[in-house]
Each structure stands twice: as structure tokens, then as C-alpha cells.
Amino acid sequence: MSPEALILVLISACLHAGWNLIGKQQSPSQAFFVISTFFGVLLLSPWLWLNPVALPDWKHPFWLWLIFSGFFQAIYLTGLARAYKSGDLSVSYPLARALPVVLVPLCYSLSEQGSQISSGHFPAVILIVAGALLLPLNRLRDWHWRAYLQPSILFVLLAAVGTTGYSLVDAHGINILQKDAGMNPYQAGASYVLLQGMTCLLWLAPWAMFYQEERRQAFRLIQAPKWMIWAGLFIMLTYLMILASFALVDEASFVVAFRQISIVLGVIAGVVLLKEQLSRLRVVSVSLIFFGVVLISL
């Protein structure tokens, strides 16, 4: 991974932990992420006017990739909202970030492309899986299969599927903007994240507003939008930097892996700022996950 891509991913990790903390702290709901995404798109939209770029023709497959990306992004944000509503940030966030590290290269391996992650990375994968299995437990002797049927854990799995989906799709979308439209990584990243935010809203807003409770949340949140504006800005900048980094590497798996430094930041935020409990077993679990993703990134 190039130094430029590394710096982008590290800054993105900090911003990512930041907007997840805001979402958990303010209102873990689909309504929160709808409004935040809307403000993020609004803040970034001048890009297309100040820096006009030649987008692919409407008949180009790029637009189909973009629609899929928005769908997976909506799945991801919905999973996060529901997981944060019923579970701790220090548990849900590490799981949602770690599971795609295994799922993305698995999808690459099953595709015709194959994956650059080989059998030498199996110890890292084992660490991640072991940490993920231990994290929902307070004590090892409390282990029971029902511990994994908590609503928050099931919604974390939904968020992980969303992350895996948009990671794979976005890598294709960014490559198209670079190769077919001739954009540099930053032009491609800014253009794509703005378009992705729009398509995400097309999926997420009707889904969220279908529920009366989400409509009530949206009305309450819009009365004091400061935190949604910050979260929206962080969301856009997070994915702008990640999408730009996709254009600087050969495979999305390495970007998805290295950005998991945000796992530690998310756990610290949950414990220090939200006063969540952190047992010794959870410290071990987070450590296993963290070292696993570091091994893969190296």
C-alpha cells in the first residue's frame, strides 16, 4: 500500500469512528443516517459545479454498479442503526468493522479474479474470527450459542454484509471513473461518493420513512441538526478518502483491512465517552481482532 493511500485510510478511520460515535450518542436510528447523509450530499454537491467532470453515458454499466452500491450502503446504515439501538458501541462497532475483512477476500476468492490474500494470512483470519466469537461474551464461562442471537449481533451481521457489498462494488465503480472517464483518484472519489450518497438516499429514505417511529425521530432530529451536519460531513469525507485509496491499490481487501484501526478508536470512544463496560475478555477479543487485521494489512 502506498504512503498516500495509507494516510488517506488512517484519516478516514478516525472520521469513521467519529460519525459512528455521533450516531450512537445522538439517535441510533435510520432517520439519523437519512438526515446525516442528506446533509453530507448537500455539503459535497458544489463539487460537481466547481469541478465539472465527464461522467459515463447513462447506458454505461457504471450506473448499475452505483445503484447496487447505494443499496448496500443503505443495508449497512440500517444494520448499524438497529445494532446501536440495542447494543454497545464497543461490541457492535468492532464486529461490524472486522467481519468484512474476512468476507471481502472470501468473495474475491470465489470470483474469477481470485484474491491476493493467501494461505499465509490464515492465522490472521483465525485471530479475527476468534475475537469476533468472544466479543459478545462478558466471561468465557458464559458461552452459549444463544449469545449470538441477540438483536444487536444479528444486525451487526447485516451491517457487515452491507460493507462487504459496497466495498466490492465501489472498487469497480472507481476503476470505471478512472479508466473510462479519465479522472484522477481524488476526482473519481469525490464524484463517486456524492453519487453514492444520492443513490443511498433513494433506497434508505423510503425504507426509513415507512415506519412511524422513524418519522417521529426525523422530525425531532431536524429541530437541532448540528450533529447530523457534522456526521454527514464525516460520512462523506470518510468514503471520499476510502474511495480515493481504492484507486491507489490493486485490491480492495487491503484497504478494508487496514482501515480497521478504527476498531480500537471505536472501543475507546464507547468506554471513555459512553461509559460502556469493558471486561477483560472483551479486551482480549478486541486485541485479537486488531492484531488480525494488522497482520492482513501487512
Automatic annotation (TrEMBL):
Alphabetically ordered keywords of this record: Membrane, Transmembrane, Transmembrane helix
Annotated InterPro entries: EmrE-like
Keyword Transmembrane attributed: yes
Nuclease as UniProt keyword: no
Segments passing through the bilayer: 6-22, 31-50, 62-81, 117-135, 147-169, 189-207, 227-248, 254-274, 281-297
Positions in coiled-coil regions: none
Name of this chain's protein: Uncharacterized protein
Source organism: Oceanospirillum linum
